[in-house]
Amino acid sequence: MTSSYITTTIPYVNARPHLGFALELVQADVLARYRRDLNEQVRLQAGTDDNSLKNVLAAQAAGIGVQEFVDANAAAFLGLAEPLSLSIDDLIRTSSDPRHRAGVERLWRACAASGDLYRRHYEGLYCVGCEQFYPAAELAAGRCPEHGTVPDLVSEENWFFRLSRYAGRLRGLIADDTIRIQPAERRNEVLALIDAGLADFSVSRDVERARGWGIPVPDDPGQVIYVWWDALGNYLTALDYAAGGENLGRWWTGASRRIHLLGKGVLRFHAVYWPAMLLSAGEAVPTDIVVHGYLTENGRKISKSGGAPGAISTVDPYDLAGRYGTDAVRWWLLREAPRGADTDFTVDRLVARANDELANGFGNLVNRVVSMIHRYYDGLAPATPAPALEAPALGAPALDAAIADAPGLIAEALEDFDFRRATEAVWRIADEANRYVNHARPWDLAKAGDHAGLAAVLSRLLRACQAAGEHLRPFLPDAAARITRQCTPDPAGHLPPPVTLLPRLSPPVRAGHDQRKS
Ligand SMILES: [Zn+2]
Hints:
15% strand, alpha/beta, 47% helix, 16 strands, binds zinc ion, four-stranded antiparallel beta sheet, single chain
């Protein structure tokens, strides 16, 4: 049986979550739900990265103890499952989950046993925002390309990982798609990075510079394990890697797919460092590395941590889901973020998309169809007519094709991790069905007493509504359930009375300035 282990990255908990991270969570949730619906075995894994120096600095700036600070923010991340309707199977927190530290220690010892860890003195430019050293050539006018801040000059004795040793094997695994990196431009970027030469990287920090926060290096308490080493390890530690138990065999070694979702800014860590660590430790490598772009606001990356010159606002997924509903937020993220590329978020765009396609599209369609069935048949769902009495042909072939094509198109699009194309296939059903209502004019058939024609049109439309409800399920689980309930006859064949399933949303009210800016 096909089994998939699907992971999201684990965000730093230096602040509350923003909408940019919701994109990755929702994409991962769609994949998990879709594959579960196909009766595949799925484990959706998420968590938080607590052991970062930037968490420590943020806690200090807030005047709160580090554990208390990360606990509060981690809760806000893990709580996103509710407003976003996420079907996460397991969450790991790197500072408090007993599976994690023991697993990271095992991973360290496994790489040490392979001869891949050694100590040396190091001097470099370190961006705390990124938690990484930057070669001068990768800085933009001396500043971090992600944060726009000037990195710190750090000079210390660290443990290093022999990344250079794995360049050849890594290149081969990526070139032959054993590790499939999507979209293709990201794959090419990684191959170019490998071809430019892979230097060994520092995998520990002086305990003092780390402010004593993090996981100590086994047998070297003066050093703390580099937060990225620790964080990447979560994909294994959450499977009880330390104990080497059943979960590890089932979801890592034995899984058909090991799928990591991530943003383009952390590609190197996931596509270079992580597979090399796994090779060193003698573990299987991921099968899929799926890279999404950033959400921007006025062209700037939405970020929980500022730093770049100019204000970066926080777009709070809790606020948005509370105000506009889970369905509208999920739909916007899935419909508007182009595969692998950035997209600009505004509340107006979210509201417009929800009104055009959810309220006026799916919602209006189901409402019209169920209302007409109540008006003309007292709610009794018309039986599917014999082929000889097929509904008026005008517009019907396009609707029938939209329904018939949807499963294949969705499967193909999701195999490419193209959520926009996948939702487009479902949207087409509603769009064609609404067009068909206007062509077939069931109210005219009723007036003319064409009972066979009316039954044929309405039964075809009801089938379209049911198909929309079915195919929406991975994308909008809440709305899909409401549509399915509304369109499923009771044992006596009656449909529930029509209710508003997807309300029209009001655009945000502005009082002088944009209230979303914090
Ligand atoms: Zn940075």
